[in-house]
Amino acid sequence: MVDSHYVRGGGLGKSEAGSDLRFTLPSPITFLLLPEFTSIAFFSVIEALRVANRYAPKKYAWNLTSLEGGSAKDSNGIEICVSNSIFDLTEPPGTVMVVGGTAPDRFAMPTLFSKLRWFSSQGCLLGAVDTAQQLLAMGGFLDGYRVTVHWENASAFRERFPMCRLTVNLFEFDRNRVTCAGGTAGIDMVLHAVEAEHGRDVAIRASEHFMHERIRSGSEAQRLKATDRWDIHHIKLVKSIELMEAEIEEPLTTAELAAAVSLSSRQLSRLFKEHLNVSPGQFYLELRLDRAHQMILHSELSVNAIAFACGFQSQSHFSRVYREKFDVSPRQTRRREVERQFPVMQAPN
């Protein structure tokens, strides 16, 4: 399938000023702040828009909405005033950007999906930031589109929404959809859109305001390189770790890893012991358990499904090694996370 890109009004092309409209954020932008949204993801986007307005000849406009109007509370309990409820809007904006946070599944309501479907039918660009991709995917809005999510959520998202063309890029513009992984990637997404519409000089001036040393492209990695995360610089060791991270569901044997980097099993084991003080098998197991831990925290997949997605053929074996690492069972981990997100209110004495 050949990808096309979204241009408000239809068709591919450039503006009269020569700007590339395939990657823009049409104004006005309506933000839908879901309950317990992630502040850094939201403010990275909106602050970048505010600063861009200092230099862009055509200003961005936006308004804030929530599900019920009044205010929206972020994941830290800080309330943000909004102008109205998303359901009160009767005129389509240029862009509708949904900002997620804790447990976005809770808001998968037919009424919301109907409203978003109406926005899309009116030519709006639909966007999702942080965890809101999960909500849009539940409504079928991202089927067949390139979609990025935060790396912590990627494995669970891939298992749950196979119709989406998942990447782990910083952001993705694909036709009438835009998705952003969250964190500070929103700054780069906006600066990319500013450059596309207003030129590189304007984007650079906005970037320098943030002391942002460069504008990252959407295809850049979300995570630090293996060399930085583990402070290792041996090329073959780094390559073997990258292979492990890419093959979580069907783990490679030490012999297969060694062959892939042109070493013997003994040589690879010696490298791991020398630089990381563990065997390749132990290191691989830690990676798989960490991935499983993130999936338990950030998805609703069953423990059995998570075990298989992380290369464990037996749930009992998975539960045993998980408990050895985290001192609790997978189910206890999930229960504690639910209790943390939805604490039971205690009546005063």
TrEMBL record:
Domain HTH araC/xylS-type intervals: 238-336
Gene3D superfamilies associated with the record: 3.40.50.880, Homeodomain-like
Pfam families: DJ-1_PfpI, HTH_18
Record SMART domains: HTH_ARAC (SM00342)
PROSITE patterns tied to this protein: HTH_ARAC_FAMILY_1, HTH_ARAC_FAMILY_2
InterPro entries on file: Class_I_gatase-like (IPR029062), DJ-1/PfpI (IPR002818), Homeodomain-like_sf (IPR009057), HTH_AraC (IPR018060), HTH_AraC-typ_CS (IPR018062), Tscrpt_reg_AraC-type_HTH (IPR020449)
Molecular function as annotated in GO: DNA-binding transcription factor activity; sequence-specific DNA binding
Keywords: DNA-binding, Transcription, Transcription regulation
PANTHER family per record: ARAC-FAMILY TRANSCRIPTIONAL REGULATOR, HTH-TYPE TRANSCRIPTIONAL REGULATOR EXSA
Annotated protein name in UniProt: GlxA family transcriptional regulator
Species, as recorded: Blastopirellula sediminis
